[in-house]
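Inputs:
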Amino acid sequence: MLRPEKPALGGLAPESLEALLAPLPPFRSRQILTWIYRRVSSFDEMTNLPKALRSDLAARFILYSSAVSACFEDPDGTAKLQITLWDGARIEAVLLSDGGGRKTACLSTQAGCPAGCVFCKTGLLGFRRDLDSAEIVEQFLHLRSKEAEIANIVIMGMGEPLLNLEEVRRALLVFTSPDGLALSPRRITLSTCGIAEGIRELADKGPPVRLALSLTTADEALRERLMPLALTNPLATLKDTLAYYQQRTGRRLTLEAVLLGGINTRPEDADALAAFAGGLEAAVNLIPWNPVDGLSFEGRPLQEPGRRELRTFTAALEKRGLNVTQRFRKGRSIAGACGQLGVVHTERFVPRCPVNSR
Ligand code: SF4
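Outputs:
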């Protein structure tokens, strides 16, 4: 499929939009941006623009390069959008609710993922392509059509963001720029499976978002078997890089551990995790594995950790002085929970909310 003939305005950085619309005066470009951030569906809805300008814009541009192709809602308040990109690739973005009414957008950075973590549905799909910054920003705008007030962004959807760092940084600049969506970098968390070079580059170039390392285990040999990218990013290097990120940004880190029943919840995993966290200002976020059909580790189907196993492992970490939280299991009925994103094609998942496509 070819790129659309007309350029899309939706996810552009404010300065790129202004340049594209020249010689329109900058105040017009700001008006247009305000409408886009309200996620209008047509230029005709931009009622403070002269009619002739609206027609001219519609003749030269399209609003968004991607469209929502399905929307799924979990009774726990989670909503998942399936989004089709201009070339037919499909990705997913999730709107999470914390129970107190605060909403968080979980965004994807790649269609599929080349990292191949054994516990993740996206890894099972393989890799199709990187998203450009506009496609990342548009996910946020599509989620906004469901919920205008989104307090936080987590870059934890499909893909490894640091393998697509240039476009991810561009999108982060749109999210944080005072002329863009003006979100504080503190409200944005980027999660990586651990690419040392990318962490260092993000530390140097910013913006200084919060960083979460998907550690899973600090047993190096086990980690290499669970997460192939660990083979080229040894734990000692990663730890140095995390310390560098912390020193440059002043941000507290999160160490995430997806807990796989009977695999990474042993006392030695607690010891290794505590040793890795030593010297870093970091909280540990435990994520009991969310089931995905077809995922296995060395010939054995993966399993959720049992309740007792979870309690024992949490207590073991706390005993070693770690600050431990457990991630809520949200969106499991719509395959929208952590590690489950993978563009569902089965009828098992019937769209439950109106599709708001352009
Ligand atoms: S956990 Fe993240 S990095 Fe690993 S395969 Fe899944 S999407 Fe890719």
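Remarks. Residues 345-358 have pLDDT under 50 and may be disordered. The first strand starts at residue 67 and ends at 73.
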